[in-house]
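>> Question from a student workshop board

For tomorrow's exercise we were told to take the sequence and the ligand below, predict the bound structure, and bring the output to class. My setup keeps failing. Could a helper post the expected result so I can at least see what it should look like? The ligand is pyridoxal-5'-phosphate.
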Amino acid sequence: MSELPIREELRGIEPYGAPQLDVPVCLNVNENPFPPSEALVADAAAAVADAVRGLNRYPDREAAGLRKALATYLERESGVTLRPEQVWAANGSNEIMLQIFQAFGGPGRSALSFAPTYSMYPEYARDTSTAWITAPRRDDFTIDADAAVAAVTKHAPSVVLIASPNNPTGTAVPLELVRRLHAATTGMVVVDEAYAEFRRAGTPSALSVLREHPRLIVTRTMSKAFAFAGARVGYAAASEQVIDALRVVRLPYHLSAVTQAVAGAALSHADELQARVNDLRVGRDELAAWLRSIGLEVADSDANFVLFGRFPDRHAVWQGLLDRGVLICDTGPDGWLRVSVGTPAEMAAFRSALTEVLGTTRSKGVTP
Ligand SMILES: *Cc1c(COP(=O)(O)O)cnc(C)c1O
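>> Workshop helper replied:
Here is what the output should look like for this input. Compare the format with yours to find the bug.
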């Protein structure tokens, strides 16, 4: 196999992905734990039946109906009015991000982000032969605006990428940072708002400053708040010119008619989903408070997960939880673990498993 003429930078690389294990309590990939309602299931099934009747034809290449529905949703969620031409949709925000790198990155160009952050970003860079640069966050995972501007000035990246709320830390950025970075670069500024719907009261969305920033792109997804990870629908909001650039690099007919149909059905149920999101935000705050109450450090989170620690041997804690049927994620800076907010029953299982694990590992001297 060593004879394959694979690109040098891909040789020996394992495909990325969190473990997909069959355990009772899965809290490792920030999914929404509540499945779609039966009313949504029925609407989606009817929409799929309709779509299937037309599957002899290629789908709407421009996904016009879906982009209009997404623009309507964003207006309700963030109060920002967008024309459908300012919205773009693809198979997950992962594909949106790859299209951004294809359009604005590439050989001889670089992308910069602030570590620790989402582990997929360097892969989009690698796959598009874009150089990957990181500048550090502060110890509390916020971004020092002066240092960020200095890094952008020094490296002149063609893409600056900020996850807000950030994965795996849950940290959101102030709009002032977005303004300053946009002013400091001639490149694109991408704010990945995969978790935006979970943000705390008072935390802004970068959508609200889109109009004044022609090189700003805000990406969102239906995978998290919308409880639709399996459907693979992500989207971006930006100026029409930016969306036109993404349309140049998309594969023809990239978004299947079935995907467009189920996404449209889910968007028509946005209000009922919002109630679940509110429950998860409350669950997030309770989880953070409980972890602090047992003496652990917790990063402030605007997302549907929390990063907690620190453990001299985090893998032992992760394994101890898994042995008790609870899968979380050993990602992020050394010593920390990330857990997604689940149902009340899943949270109870997590709390009792962690209490047990810390009891045993403390007696072995593995945790503080
Ligand atoms: C989960 C996540 C996404 C969503 O990816 P999809 O492809 O839309 O499922 C995007 N960005 C970050 C930082 C994430 O954690």
